[in-house]
Amino acid sequence: MKMAKRVTLYITIFLFAGIGLAPVVVMFFKSLFVDGGFSLENYGVLFQSNREWTLLFNTLVLAGATTFITVLLGVPLGTLFAKTDLPFRRFFAVLFIIPLLIPSYILAVAWFYCMGRSGIVASLLGETAGIVTSNFLFGFAGTLFVMVSALLPIVIILTMTYLRMVNQDMEEAGRIYSSWPVVLRKITLPLISPGIALGALITFVLTLGEFGVPSFLRFDVYSVESFTMFSAFYDFSSATATALPLGIITIVVLIIERLFLRKKTFVSRTMGLEKKKAVVPLGKYKPYFLIGVSILVFILVVVPLCVLLCKSLSLSAYVEAFARSAGSIMRSLLYASIGASCLVIFGFLLGYILDRKALRLHYAVDSLAVFLFALPGAVIGIGLSNLWNTSGTNFIYASIPIIIFGYIAQYTALGERIMAATFPHVSHSMEEAAQIAGAGWYRRVFKVLVPLVKRGMIATWLICFIFCLRDIGITMMIYPPAHDTLPVRTFTLMANSPDNIISALCVIMVMITLLPLCGLGLVRKYVT
Amino acid sequence: MIVKIENVTKAYNKTPVIRGVSLGIEKGERIVILGPSGCGKTTLLRMVAGFIHPDKGKLVIEGKTVADNGKCIIEPEGRQVGMVFQDLTLWPHMSSYKNIEFGLKAKKIPKTEIREQIDSILEKVQMIQFRNAYPGDLSGGQQQRIALARALVTRPKILLMDEPLSSLDTDLRGVLMREILRLQEELTITMIYVTHDREEAFSLATRIVVMKEGEIQKTGTVSQIKEWL
Ligand SMILES: Nc1ncnc2c1ncn2[C@@H]1O[C@H](COP(=O)(O)OP(=O)(O)O)[C@@H](O)[C@H]1O
Ligand SMILES: [Mg+2]
Question: What is the DSSP annotation of A250-300?
């Protein structure tokens, strides 16, 4: 009986390592050999030119600035939504989260229609104004702005989640002596600092790996460079060489996480107990906060979405958009569903290993998953296509599996961590009771564990579905001919299609992401 | 009278939790509110502290009305109370010293004086050797001692205690109970102590208030209550 469990878990790890780690490792070792002999020639070009240094500088500054501003905005916003009596706070929270559901470059497209040379601003205020706004948008400032609005939800969500776990009594112990602003600053925020740090970390690595936005707004960073080397010049060695700095930065960031964040778990685990939480009254400042939040949500979310909606507002645009992308839409939904389902399985088993410390390898497996999540999609993509591009494995390389492999490699950490956070709600004794009753491991899994963590699995599926659906970094690198997804299709059509069709495609993308969520919301409302 | 609770009611989602409680507390008393779990003891105590406010009725502390008919007139930080909670609530990111310092800093007391006062209170709760320890390195009993020091250091008029010993082992409870008695007498502080444990109530109280389902059932001295029960 014990055998079944161990074998299943080891096979899972083996598969995950094969799908995710092998491509990256093989890619790295291959790049060390030139013409059959060991050589560092591929890396010789690294940091030889000014361009290399510019790339490194741009990449780091963009990721750093995005992280800084996102935390600066996201933490107060999350606090407002989770802790205060701000009117419409749930509605605001939902609005702010929408940009996370769609590929980030769509926001860039919307802003281009707004601020480009012949955009809305130009048509309203004249050509010179258009040039000014266009110069702002294309380059560092614009990329930073779009990245902040795209990744802000991550910090907001994490801030809200961690705030819900804070023991109210600790804040009240401070309220005896000080007003809320002091308590928030000196007690509450330090208590959720691990959550804030996690948000910062995720923001940093996602910016590092972002391909769509900097590529569209022509800001030179490593992810874009890797992609160009690989798909425009088919230059595998140079692509790997440009991928290396990204890999190293990722590893450094993760080591920092492991060293400094791991030990700090201040938040008492009262999740799920529905502990009453202290509400901070905004009092006479309420109108000011309301106005401030409204302005922010208007600029960051409402304007870009409305621009796309208005631009696309004609039946012919949608007809044409559907005609050009019907196949991609179906593929997007299909691949994301398959991907999400695989990720639930991997997430379940690896999350189980992590939470129950079921194997001695649990720490290593978690590190691997997190590393692959943090690694830019471009890097994983290059590795995957390089590994599977052989005559024997063409059925993988030239078809759906390679895309699914990409999703598994990149997003398993999501499933693993969500499931690992779900398992503590199932006490060991429930499993042991079934074991004593003589149930084998598989029976215990399907009859006891799965029913008890069903909600966590549904959440995992949905979140993974959204991440697969919005993916462009990996898919762009590895999609076989005639296997493009909607984000990729839109991205490639962008160069030579009219604005209204691109807008329509973007709106469709928002819709196919939001519809499953709304559907689920309705089901939950009427079922429970 | 240092605390006057006048016909106070409180409901959560239309379920009444406190149904018309009136109670007067004299300076220097050790009031123990005794009652089964869920009868509203914590709610009443949190109202005195000012974290929640009565729907109806009035709360007077030291002659000042602090809450009246759903309105909060004086916020917790202005009520000059100290509180020890049921859960261990030392702030985990601060050392013992910093935990105790928080209230004194809020009162804008000069640094040298702060240091003296903290050291003196740490002596009193016999924790001076753990001055720079973090809560994570302290046992439950040690944490509650520091929490007691944190609550007492600002010289509050009223000390509120919500089952402060319930998270501790039985042996420790007796020791800490005696310590609480000693400190209360030494500092002549008014104390409102909440518990569901009769023995605790009998050994600590000068007066016991028995609560049931949001109402006061009986008030009296230890011997009166012993007889009545
Ligand atoms: N924030 C809250 N929201 C809803 N119900 C609450 C809240 N706080 C307490 N209650 C309810 O009020 C009743 C009294 O609670 P409490 O004062 O904590 O009792 P005690 O401290 O005597 O155990 C309980 O039934 C509890 O469920
Ligand atoms: Mg209680």
Answer: HHHHHHHIIIIISS---S---TTS----PPBP-GGGHHHHHHHHHHHHIII
Gyration radius of chain A's alpha carbons = 24
Instruction: Please give the distance, rounded to the nearest whole angstrom, from the Cα atom of residue B44 to the centre of ligand 2.
Output: 9
E runs forming strands in A113-222: none
| A62 shares its domain with A184 | yes
Q: Are A344 and A453 in contact (CB under 8 A)?
A: no
Alpha carbon B82 to its chain centroid, in Å, reads: 6
- Same domain assignment for residues A129 and A225: yes
The structural domain count of chain A equals 2
Task: Give the domain-ending residue among A311, A345, A366.
Answer: A311
Distances (CA, A) of A388 to A19, A222, A242, A243: 10, 24, 21, 18
Rg (alpha carbons) of chain B, rounded to whole number:
17
pLDDT mean over A290-311: 94
The answer, yes or no, to whether residue A486 has pLDDT greater than 80, is: yes
The answer to whether residues A6 and A25 belong to one domain is yes
Residues having CB closer than 6 A to ligand 1 are A 276; B 12, 17, 35, 37-43
Per-residue pLDDT band for A276 (boundaries 50, 70, 90) equals low
Q: For residue A176, give how far its alpha carbon lies from the nearest alpha carbon of chain B (Å).
A: 5
A381, A499: one domain: yes
Say if A509 falls within a structural domain. Answer: yes
Query: What separation in Å is there between the alpha carbon of B52 and the centre of ligand 1?
Result: 12
- Given A282, A311, A340, the domain boundary residue is A311
Tokens of A84: 């205060």
Distance CA A468, CA A340 (A): 7
What single letter denotes the amino acid at residue A248? Answer: I
Domain hosting residue A345, numbered range: 1-42+312-528
Q: Does B76 touch chain A (CB under 8 A)?
A: yes
Using DSSP's 3-state secondary structure scheme, residue B142 falls into helix
Other Cβ atoms within 10 Å of B89 Cβ, number: 24
Instruction: Report pTM.
Output: 0.89
Check pLDDT > 80 for residue A200. Answer: yes
DSSP string, B38-76: TSSHHHHHHHHHTSS--SEEEEEETTEEEEETTEESS-G
Rounded distance between C-alpha atoms, residue A349 and residue A21, angstroms: 18
What CATH number does residue A344 fall under?
1.10.3720.10
Phi, psi angles (nearest 5°) of residue B167: -95, 10
- Residue A235 sits in the same domain as residue A99: yes
Question: In 10 A of CB A344, how many CB atoms?
Answer: 23
Q: Decide if A47 is inside a domain.
A: no
Q: Is the pLDDT of residue A223 over 60?
A: yes
**Residue B82 with chain A: CB contacts under 8 Å:** 176
- The two structure tokens encoding residue A11: 């096979």
Cα angle B179-B183-B187, degrees, rounded to a multiple of 5: 175
> Strand B15-25 to strand B3-12: parallel, antiparallel, or no bridges (unpaired)?
antiparallel
Residue nearest atom 6 of ligand 1, based on CA coordinates: B12
A194 and A72 share one domain: yes
Query: Which amino acid, A210?
Result: E
- Optimal mutation site among A166, A176, A182, A193, interface B, most CBs of chain B within 10 A: A176
The Cα A336–Cα A342 span in angstroms is 10
Burial group, residue B167, by CB count within 10 angstroms (0-12, 13-18, 19+): middle
Q: What is the pLDDT of residues B58-78, one digit of tens each?
A: 999 999 999 998 888 999 999
Mean pLDDT of chain A: 88
Contact A365, A13 (CB under 8 A): yes
Same domain, A59 and A32: no
Those residues with Cβ within 8 angstroms of residue A426's Cβ, 6 or more apart along the chain or in another chain: A448, A449, A452, A453
Q: Which residues from chain B sit within 8 angstroms of residue A193, using beta carbons?
A: 93
